[in-house]
Design brief:
The structure is a homodimer of 437-residue chains. Chain A has 437 residues and is an alpha+beta fold. Helix content of chain A is 38%, strand content 24%. Chain A folds into 2 domains: 285 residues, Aminopeptidase (3-Layer(aba) Sandwich), CATH 3.40.630.10; 120 residues, Alpha-Beta Plaits (2-Layer Sandwich). In chain A, a hairpin with a 7-residue loop joins strand 18 and strand 19. At the A-B interface, strand 9, helix 8, strand 11, strand 12 and strand 13 of A face strand 9, helix 8, strand 11, strand 12 and strand 13 of B.
Chain lengths: 437, 437
């Protein structure tokens, strides 16, 4: 993974902000400039025309939400939904519409300055849900409340992106920067950000993205500008096993596992930057009258700081080494030793976008301009990946109310007034960052 | 559970030996008397006629082994095999053939002294196997080697008991004591000795059994005269759970479980009487990014000494209390505390039969008389239960070779010469303890 220094990060954020400011602007100036720029955009005739279009084809947006929600998209099985979304990207008239090797689908709306050659401002929503195959994804409607697994996380955002394209076209809005609209795979747990990892590290847009918006969830007040990094292990402790009575005194992988948990929980990670761990899932053993020959334990470690996460990771590996060595020293290894294998089952880089970066200040200004109060948060989303690369990135909401994400009774409210107001936040922020003629 | 003092136990063992000796006989005398009595039995015309019958209907014994092995008898699901065995007990002409409330099947061969009124010398084999429903129990034959799950543990013994009845009848052997032939349920792990517990503590033979042979496994040299006691727990640690990142700092039942394992493995139990423990099977947790709300761990503790087992048990409960209290003190209990529930999933009393008791000395003499070398062992078998009640009890082998008990490739060798010689051990010991006219 490439890491940029703070000064490079700063330069990159200025680059993304190029449409708005010169490189000399300091933090206060940039914030002030963002507020003015956003107010100008939101108050202008183009934006008003775009909002009129969002209103006019709102039923189509809701229909798209339902259509997409009812196409199952479990982790690693997003293909059917991706294909449908690809057709929708084509239908709204984007250019260069394609599915990449990882399964992401995307299309370009060229800007006046870069004319489709990039760099690109990306706005992405993720195709995958947390729900396994066979989950009933039929949308239930009760008044303006729509319920179905995955409807708010993150299917509504996919439909909102399409609405933005239609609105910009209807309003004849020309941005300076090229915009890449993306429906990406692999945001949820097991996907481990595989979609954005491909987009930034392997795909044809690698090195050509200047700013990244992930639209994820509903709340329009939310700016996720810090990415909580995570590292997850499935550790398998192995030993020779044996009869609980006959082989008593032989090393037990259970003890090495237990010592690892006890020692990890004696670690005191910093509260700021917030750093956490969890011994989460455990299993193993053959019968009550047998010394087990295999025990697994899944561990989760997270931090807002890449350095703290790396430090915790190193401490953890030391704990595993010590626990296994201790067990091999404490009991007989005649029939075999205890060993461990630590398999990384998840790795999301920690990172953050400078709070003074344009993507943050412009989005905060857009949230305020539409009458909401900006809430800066740390979370683990697709934006983690570009953050870790020093590319200005945040995660924002699609607008409207919603709840019970990751639960079978997940819901969104599509009440038109509130939802339309929320939807304008993302559009205003996108236009501010991409720049308008 | 009733526990007898050592003097009561001694009295009981003398009572069982009543057919052979007066109560004044000391240990050396009794051993010497046993040797002479067994030699007299084995050298007599009755025993020779019985052996001739064992030889003559040996093929029938092997056929019975196959028939019974191919009727599945998982723990708690012995009924089909029990019913078949009940019919076999009837067919060999025993009286009072019945199935008791627990599912044991049994029949009486009345003696000349007690005429079916008891007390009874019991010889039992267990009906159950360790194998779950659906296991392929078809017997595979390769020369004299028969393979199938459960064939040696303990199905051959069931067939050998039937052969004894036929042999005694053919040889017109009249014993002084009544003999109760039993096919009992619940010897293996989860059955937790439920068959013999019922026989000795609830059934109609309660208080009427003077000596107990369990025939279990093959080795004819083996005298299990010490019963390894065991206590098994399934401990469930519970806590409030929560998001691994959002709820970090909240108590984790995983840690309480782990501390319990670490503390238990710091205990140094005595090597003599052999005392052991095992943390054997573990499971729990919902996902890698959640603090678990429930973890279970199965523990096995064993000892040749009831006192040491009780002491270890008490230590263990103290460890659980301390581990849970420690976790509740170490982390936040705001959303709820960690607690534990220790469910006893197995309890086999420890015990032993006086090495000078007639059942031991007579069996040792029988083993020697047939050309084997007696091996005194400690184990956990159906004999544990009568031992714990002070009733003279041992476990012996059915004769013949065998191996891989509790494995799918379990096997016995039915080579006639070796097997017939081994089969005579149990018959000679039974006749010595029951007394012959």
């Amino acid at each position: 993974m490439r890491r940029l220094s703070r000064s490079m990060l700063f330069a990159a954020s200025l680059f993304a902000a190029g449409a708005l400011y010169g490189p000399e602007a300091d933090a206060a100036e940039r914030s002030d400039t963002s507020v003015k720029a956003v107010q100008k955009i939101v108050g202008g005739p183009g934006f008003k025309a775009a909002v009129k279009q969002l209103d006019a084809d709102y039923d189509r947006t809701v229909a798209d939400i339902v259509t997409l929600t009812e196409i199952p998209a479990p982790p690693f099985k997003e293909e059917q939904r991706a294909k449908a979304y690809l057709e929708m990207l084509k239908a709204v008239g984007l250019s260069d519409v394609e599915m990449d090797a990882e399964g992401n689908v995307m299309g370009v709306r060229a800007g006046t300055a870069t004319k489709g050659k990039g760099p690109f401002v990306v706005i992405a929503a993720h195709l995958d849900t947390v729900f396994p195959e066979g989950t009933d994804v039929k949308v239930k409607r009760e008044g303006t409340k729509l319920s179905a697994p995955g409807i708010g996380d993150d299917t509504r955002s996919l439909a909102v992106l399409l609405a933005y394209v239609r609105a910009m076209d209807a309003a004849k809005i020309r941005t300076k920067a090229d915009i890449l609209f993306v429906g990406n795979v692999g945001e949820e747990g097991p996907g481990d950000l595989r979609g954005v990892k491909h987009l930034f590290n392997q795909g044809k847009y690698k090195g050509r993205i200047s700013a990244f918006f992930s639209m994820d969830g509903s709340d329009p007040s939310r700016i996720v500008d810090r990415g909580v990094g995570s590292k997850r292990y499935r550790v398998t402790f192995k030993g020779p096993g044996g009869h609980s009575y006959g082989a008593f005194g032989v090393v037990n992988p259970m003890t090495a596992m237990a010592q690892s948990v006890v020692d990890l929980y004696a670690v005191k990670p910093p509260a700021d930057p917030k750093t956490t761990f969890s011994a989460s899932v455990v299993g193993g053993g053959t019968s009550v009258n047998s010394i087990p020959n295999q025990i697994f334990l899944e561990f989760d470690m997270r931090s807002e700081s890449a350095a703290e996460l790396a430090k915790l990771d190193q401490t953890f590996i030391g704990i595993l080494d010590k626990a296994v060595a201790g067990e091999n020293a404490a009991r007989s290894t005649k029939p075999g030793v205890v060993s461990y294998d630590a398999k990384v089952i998840g790795e999301r880089p920690a990172g953050g976008t400078d709070p003074n970066a344009t993507i943050v200040t412009a989005t905060a200004a857009a949230i305020s301009a539409l009458g909401f109060k900006p809430e800066h948060e740390a979370s683990s989303t697709d934006a983690n990946l570009p953050m870790s690369l020093g590319i200005p990135a945040i995660t924002i909401g699609a607008g409207g109310k919603g709840g019970r994400a990751h639960a079978l009774d997940e819901w969104i409210d599509v009440e038109k007034g509130e939802t339309l107001k929320g939807m304008q936040v993302g559009l205003a922020a996108l236009l501010a960052v991409a720049g308008v003629e």
